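ok so I'm stuck.
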Amino acid sequence: MSDSNKQKQAIGLSYDGLNAPQVIAKGFDELAEEIIEVAKAHGVMVHEDPMLSDSLARLNVGEEIPRELYVLIAELIAFSYLLDGRFPDSWY
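replied:
not stuck anymore, here's the structure
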């Protein structure tokens, strides 16, 4: 499938600070667009990475991310917190 024909996908993750992040939303094409719009409307940062979304798209809603993605997802969460002006208490 060429890039122009590739299905758009969106996978939403939730992280409670204790357990592994888990998939809370997943959609393709028009539903993917809606997921992205709703996320942005609620101030959720959106990261576009086709390889990562391909890996996450294999998971079901409610499923935790695999260990192989822990570091990558942790880096994205940390970066999004910094962009949002949130820092660990120990940084003050």
